[in-house]
Amino acid sequence: MSTEPVTIHPAERLAAKRLADAFGLPSFDPGWVWLAGAGPGDPGLVTLLGLHAIVQADVVLYDALVNETLLKLARPGAELIYAGKRRGKNSCRQADISRTLVSLARNGKRVLRLKGGDPFVFGRGGEEALSLARAGVAFRIVPGVTAGIGGLAYAGIPLTHRDTNHVVTFLTGHGSDGRLPEFDWVAIAKGSPTLVFYMALAHVGEIAAKLMQAGRARDEPAAIVGDATNSAQSVRVTTLEQLGRAAETASAPALIVIGENVRLRERLDWLGALTNAKMLHPDARMREVS
Ligand code: SAH
Questions:
Q1: Which end of the chain lies in a sparser environment, N or C, as judged by fewer CB atoms within 10 Å?
Q2: Does 63 qualify as catalytic in the annotation?
Q3: Would the CB of 123 count as within 6 Å of ligand 1?
Q4: Residue 219 confidence (pLDDT) above 60
Q5: Could you give the residue range(s) of every CATH 3.40.1010.10 domain in the chain?
Q6: Is the C-beta atom of 121 inside 6 A of ligand 1?
Q7: Where in the chain do CATH 3.30.950.10 domains reside?
Q8: Are 42 and 73 spatial neighbours (Cβ–Cβ below 8 Å)?
Q9: 139 lines ligand 1 (CB under 6 A)
Q10: Where would I find the beta strands (DSSP E) of the chain?
Q11: What is the pTM of this model?
Q12: Which pLDDT band holds residue 280 (cuts at 50, 70, 90)?
């Protein structure tokens, strides 16, 4: 969460390697592709296996949502290739990324494909893995903390809570044609008290309207969690009815969460409490004390 510049010394890289050895983690062999999640932003949320991969890789293809601080762990001389889709002219097509992964692996490189969050959650990791499988390239999937889980934890919103929801649903607001996917809104509205949307900022007014038409209450709490787990994290709590308006001034990346569990943030905003140098009272009710 710190905004201080980070310097990595060879000793730290070695420490990561030793730790990986101590745990008997698999070696990253030449000619392999590791498809790994970097977590939602805070570098502390990368896994040990993810770190191990960064330290050993010959080439790292990383996405826009990967915290670039993590790349400092790559060994000197490792090739770092930006493969994100958010920077206009430099944006890469999915087919080009898959082709690059295959050709680097065939050239005997240790190829790390590093993606934000978890590689298999709304991140096209499945498509890339299928291309590798088709090409006969050996690969390993390294899971990561997905934004919908890590981001909500940093927002002080429990994903499930016995008093509010026994079900949670993760959805994307962005179909392959860029439009809102065609969901069965009545089933979603009835079936899952808590809904977590990825890539939904552009369509959030429409999403809220569909959910209200399908029976969800106008005053149900909802939150927009922007830049989750990063130092610029912002959380706006609103209602389903006001969600579209609240999203007008929000910027990507952001998660939308809808459900009664959002209300728990009032008492569980541990990060806000830290930032404001306040202490949460350690009793069961988590009353704030100054
Ligand atoms: N594979 C990623 C998701 C990629 S889709 C994962 O598992 O997290 C990209 C969407 O993820 C963004 O549009 C946003 O909705 C969400 N997202 C990713 N990182 C985020 C962050 N730090 N804060 C808020 N939302 C984030």
A1: C
A2: yes
A3: yes
A4: yes
A5: 10-144
A6: yes
A7: 148-275
A8: no
A9: no
A10: 33-37, 59-62, 79-82, 111-115, 139-142, 168-172, 194-198, 221-226, 234-239, 254-258, 279-280, 288-289
A11: 0.93
A12: low
